[in-house]
Amino acid sequence: MPTDLGANWVFRITELQGRRQWMRAVEGLDLISGAVAMLAIPNPFEVKLLGWRAAAESVQFVLFALLCYEWAFSSWEKLPFTCSYLPGKTLAWMLAAEFLGLLALLPIVCAIMLACLYNLTGYLVLPGALFAAWIRIRALRRETWGEASLRYEELPDPAVHSLDLLQ
Known about the structure:
- The chain is an all-alpha fold.
- The protein has six helices and no strands.
- The chain has one domain (5-143).
């Protein structure tokens, strides 16, 4: 059946010819759908509250969101609908701790971005730093697109790990 995981044989056979194009297409879909949801929906409220500073705030937010995207997908080696996902590999309390840690950092990031909105020097430095970091991390991630093969089936970790001395 085309909906079964075994139907991904077409992707496995042609992986070397199309991996970069597939990754670019998935990245575009992720970024465009995420940008529409995160920018277009709250933008009318921001314009009402901040006035012309809403555009400056949107620039800061877009650069920060792009940096977060690159960080989150830096080790991404799967394609949607072609690769399996093994749930439960990470314990729930560890996921909750990571989430709470990110929630604790969010007010700090918001305070920095808000302070930079009302300070011209800060506004020129922060987007410049975010843009430079995004370009660097993006270049590093895109270099590895053609090297690492995609993981189609995620399996549980073995009880005993080998040393892989023959490679």
